[in-house]
Amino acid sequence: MHDDxxxxxxxxxxxxxxxxxxxxxxxxxxxxxxxxxPVLEDAQLRDHVVFxxxxxQHVLSDPKLLVDPRSMAPTSTRMMRGEDLTVETSLxxxxxxxxxxxxxxxxxxxxxxxxxxxxxxxxEICNALFDAVxxxxxxxxxxxIARPMPTIVITELLGIDESKHDDFKVWSDRIIADKLNPIAxxxxxxxxxxxxxxxxxxxxxxxxxxxxxxxxxxxxxSGMMDAETSDGQRFSVYEIxxxxxxLLIAGNQTTTDVMxxxxxxxxxxxxxxxxxxxxxxxxPKAIEESLRFEPPIFSTERITxxxxxxxxxxxxxxxxxAAMLTAANHDxxxxxxxxxxxxxxxQIRHFAFGGGVHRCIGAPLAKLECEVLLETMVARFPxxxxxxxxxxxxxxxxxxxxxxxxLRKN
Length: 410
Known about the structure:
Number of domains: 1
Helix content: 40-55%
Oligomer: single chain
Number of strands: 12
Radius of gyration: 21 Å
Strand order of the largest sheet: 1-2-8-5-3
């Protein structure tokens, strides 16, 4: 129940990028909530929200909490958002033995060896995108680099035919506009559903072609086809398609957002870009610090399997607890001077990729892309700076990402 102290606190859409106030400065709002309402009853987009790092860590790591939306109560705020709770879940929303099986198979396909082997091709993709803006004094980094690069990388890594790359970008954008916006209109939902079908048909076609011809190129679709657990379990054709879609969505919007805020922070805070130009060995720490300072996803959710007590709140069975990752990353318990952007921190701790057994499986790929991006930038454009133009954040509700950010080369 709300009380006089918490009734006036922001809730629902006020804690998303749809709110201009929150979009302009989420940290002030989240810092206030972390101090004044560590466990907030939302009852709009979420049932409850937790903000301090200790509570976020507890929620993310507690094995008693679930992620499968089919375990939610009929009164759950997420069910009110109109999600289809009848479909078989992907790795992202699987619990127990099913999650263990899917994650084990995915890790056998999504190996560090496969990613590292793709580093050179990632660099070629990055250089080609920068070649296209070579003659420009100023360019929109999000439009020309951060938006196309992750889609090209993931489609090539999957092994999708090159003729489909432009289609995959369109489909991915439509799926994201639908699936990641709880208040998307009917036209957006119809377009998103059609895009999901197109992706599923394309990936299934790739699988069937390989089964018929026996071809196994060294790509992620082949890796998923060949993956096998110690007791002989494998992905079904539907599951391969499902997880290709998951990688496409997760590897597109979030990596675009990470790249955009990374470059913004480096070129606008504490002369950080000049520091990595002078000392490229700082690049991995610069990526971690930007992930901490401005993670691409505000929160991640868990569902109570039974009545659940957290701090002074009792959460009913089947209700959603949202762990506010951005608030935890700015908790002084986790990092000293949390509101300072400092790529030379001795220790950088964050929840940008979630935590517990559901920690983002695509984190190594996102970091690899960002490393290649910064290595390419400092080598080609050592005098790069933020252009004298306003930047704009994307209003996609659950995400922290830029819609535009202009750079100047000299």
